[in-house]
Specification:
- This protein has 446 residues and is of the alpha/beta class.
- The protein has 2 domains: 2-90 and 130-238 and 429-445, Glycogen Phosphorylase B (Rossmann fold), CATH 3.40.50.2000; 242-427, Rossmann fold, CATH 3.40.50.2000.
- The chain is built from 16 helices and 15 strands.
- It has a 7-stranded parallel β-sheet, sandwiched between helices.
- Helix 1 crosses helix 16 (430-445) and helix 12 crosses helix 13.
- The chain is globular, with a radius of gyration of 23 Å.
- The model has no long low-confidence stretch (mean pLDDT 92).
Amino acid sequence: MKTLLIFAHECVPFNRTGSTIGAQRPAQFAKHLAAFGWRTIVICCDANQRRSITKKDIPGIVSQALKTLTESKVGEPVIIATPSLYHEGIIDALWHKLVKTNKDGTFSEKNKIYSILRKPITFLKFFTGDFSQSWIPVAKAVATSIHKESKIDFCIAEHGPDAGLFLARWFHKKYNVKWIADFRDPILRSYSGFSRMVYKKISKFLLKSASASINVNSYWAELDKQHFKLPVFVLPNGFDKQEYNFKTARNTQFTVSYFGNFNKKIQDMDMFFKGLELAKRKLSSADYTSFKFLYRGRGHHEILYKAKQYNVEEIVDSAETVPRSEIIRLMMNADLLLLLSIAPYLKLDIFFSKGLHPGKTFEYFGAQKPILCIPGDKGMLDELIRESKTGQIKSNEQEIAEYLVHAFNEWKQGKQVPYTPSASRENYTRGNQAHQLSEILNKYSN
């Protein structure tokens, strides 16, 4: 077998909660690539040990990484999770002093003064790496030791954050191992104005030695091709069939479910609740109590607030996030799965002008339950749902209410909400995607 090294700051099961869907990608590729002649070693950053060590601790981390590698079974994928340094240099230390680190590993502003002070430091970090910079020295040490023990035939840099690109570029320069960048999102989408212009030049420099890049949809891939002047491939997000192995039973209540976070600035959860409130008026009291909206995720308190605001709290079952296996079980047991598209105003940005595929779309494909998409994006997401025949798109509360009542009445008669996906759904299995990835690796590693 050939050996692939992946630098992935976020990789399950060592990821922070907010990156769960994206962190599935390197782990699931690693799992399925073995069937196509590639053993995979993933180096990632343990979310529970970030910013916890100094450089004098690195030799011990390297020893543990080599132990993990040598104790693994021949040919099986290996995930090596490491801590990161408290900080990597003065600039990195200052940047972290000026932000608030939340429990889930995300960052927020401490106050306006700190925000103003942080901007020039953020600009300087364009050249050294973003918040993931303190992981780079640890990952370098581990990768160096692995290279001594095992021949590495190819390398993938997962992005974001930035660390993967810095690491793969360094690994190529030091060991002459070819690499490609795997983007889950457009690298420039988080920046605007002058920052986007500067970072565009930096990102081109970072990928100068890459053989190709990968993105998750054809539109973003085309933008990458124009930007980086490299060959580009499309490997969308997907689902691992083997995770969806739970038996399901008929619910005692008609259940519409949503899992994970939602961004109230760009996704319209209120439209769903307005539709739910309108459906309540159309149903009898007895039927209404047989209706349930189930939510599990970090937006738990926001959901409860909206439920009270729209006077539907008695049918809302909302709680904090639960383990992924439980989410998949609940997903498979739902009667309908709610999906929120992005707000129309985002389409003014070049990266969102064609819409967006939320990562959970493909998780829903795995659950094989019909999708209720609100309000649609008149772009990529609408096309995907229609082409895959996996759900309905409703653009206002009246349409939502009518569909919910219709679906409930079908359920009440002992029927399932119609779900007859097209064969294209299979294109999004991780097994099929790993096969495609192996062909890319074979092409550029020879």
